[in-house]
Specification:
By secondary structure, the chain is an alpha/beta fold. It contains 15 helices and 13 strands. Strands 2-8-7-6-5-3-4 form a 7-stranded mixed β-sheet, sandwiched between helices. Strands 9-10-13-12 form a 4-stranded antiparallel β-sheet. A two-stranded parallel sheet has the order 1-11. Strand 6, helix 9 and strand 7 form a beta-alpha-beta unit. Bound molecules: pyridoxal-5'-phosphate.
């Protein structure tokens, strides 16, 4: 008797978490590994945020909260959305979730009918496809070109739209490429999307991690004419180094957020009460840890890009505008090397782990089998040392 249903049988574990598990296993055996696979900031959660949690514990804030989140946090989020993102969210249209991940999953769960199409720009974050498939949705991949810095063009977006398109995902800045859209680029998408009934899921989790003079713009702000069909997703994991606390949020059309609340009430209930108070401290407290963290990422990105430039066969399509990853293409290596390990990103990443002792994530997980992703959310010497090891290992393949 097979008890596992077909949907769950198709479900693969998250590739990024799988690489991390393999690196941890090697480390446990005493094999040194430089882990550049991870998707979380390397700094500790700032002290005033931890203090928010300690105070909540001391004050006995240890009981069920409102399913949608504590009022103070929802108010602080609504205020932040208004001030920073030009989103006029009412508190009733803000839901606090177990990370941005649950917000995304829940938004798909309450909107998709079996067979509904969701346009996912590639390269994409690993979880979008399973998240769409779990409720029976059909992912439609819109390929961006490396030459365009992995930004989807209006034409590429148009080509992916059909009468069955229910939703379109926008993830800016993007994991894994770091590509981010300007106001003008988003506004050009709006002209196309206005001719459809598609709603938009805007994953803005890397909003605070942007470089140089790039100015982050929320999708709602860039597409005011479509604001009633945009669900904005964000969270505390990346901006406040709070990955383990599991606090995210969504805002959007009243009926969608209310449905997400009903789902949450029947499944997970509220987010951990203590973590919610910590998130409140994050939003209302000093923000100076963010620019410092971004400065660190920026310095490491520059150093890493310098080493990649010296590595024949590897290429990055320009410096990322945001997030803390480098999506490194090896198309040229694949063309010029006779080695078996350049035939797929999985094989190359395995080679890098075994030969160079560096953990990266295969591009296949993001929809590009001729690339791999490294993170710069590790100490400078790890990023630099790791890339030098990658460079030396790659040179042996030519
Ligand atoms: C693009 C993107 N969206 C959403 C998330 C979810 O983050 P969390 O659930 O920790 O808020 C991540 C985490 O890696 C991400 O990279």
């Amino acid at each position: 008797m097979e008890y596992i249903n077909a949907r769950a049988r198709r479900l693969k574990p998250s590739e990024t978490l799988a690489v991390k598990a393999k690196a941890t296993e090697l480390k446990a055996k005493g094999i040194p590994v430089i882990d550049l696979s991870t998707g979380e900031p390397d700094i500790d959660t700032p002290e005033h945020i931890k203090e928010g949690a300690r105070k909540a514990l001391k004050d006995g804030k240890t009981k069920y909260t409102d399913v949608m989140g504590i009022k103070e946090l929802r108010e602080a989020i609504a205020l932040k959305l208004k001030r920073e993102n030009g989103i006029e969210a009412e508190v009733s249209t803000v839901i606090v979730t177990n990370g941005g991940k649950q917000a995304l999953q829940s938004a798909f769960e309450v909107t998709l009918e079996p067979g509904d199409e969701v346009v996912i720009p590639a390269p994409y974050w690993v979880s979008y496809i399973p998240m769409v498939e779990i409720p029976g949705g059909k992912p439609v991949i819109a390929r961006s070109s490396p030459e365009n810095g992995f930004k989807l063009s209006v034409k590429e977006l148009e080509a992916a739209l059909t009468p069955r398109t229910k939703a379109v995902i926008i993830n800016s800045p993007s994991n894994p490429t770091g590509a981010a859209y300007t106001q003008a680029e988003l506004s050009a998408f709006a002209d196309v999307l206005a001719r459809t009934n598609a709603f938009i899921i805007s994953d803005e989790i890397y909003e605070k991690v942007v470089y140089g003079d790039f100015k982050f713009v929320s999708t709602v702000q860039a597409m005011p004419q479509l604001k009633d069909r945009i669900v904005t997703i964000n969270g505390f994991s990346k901006a406040y180094s709070m990955t383990g606390w599991r606090v995210g949020y969504a805002t959007g059309p009243k009926d969608v957020i209310a449905a997400m609340g009903r789902l949450q009430s029947q499944t997970t209930s509220n987010v951990c009460s203590i973590a919610q108070y910590a998130a409140l401290a994050a939003l209302t407290g000093p923000q100076d840890a963010i620019p410092q963290m971004v400065k660190n990422f920026d310095r490491r990105l520059n150093a890493a890009l310098g080493i990649i430039e010296q590595t024949p066969g590897l290429r990055v399509m320009g410096k990322p505008q945001g997030a803390f990853y480098l999506f490194i293409r090896f198309a040229e290596l694949a063309k010029n090397s006779k080695s078996e390990v350049v035939k797929s990103s999985g094989a190359l990443v395995n080679f890098l782990l075994e030969r160079a002792g560096v953990a990266a994530v295969p591009g296949e997980a993001f929809g590009d089998d001729q690339a791999f992703r490294i993170s710069v959310a590790a100490a400078d010497e790890q990023v630099i040392g790791g890339l030098e090891k990658i460079r030396d290992a790659v040179r042996t393949l030519l």
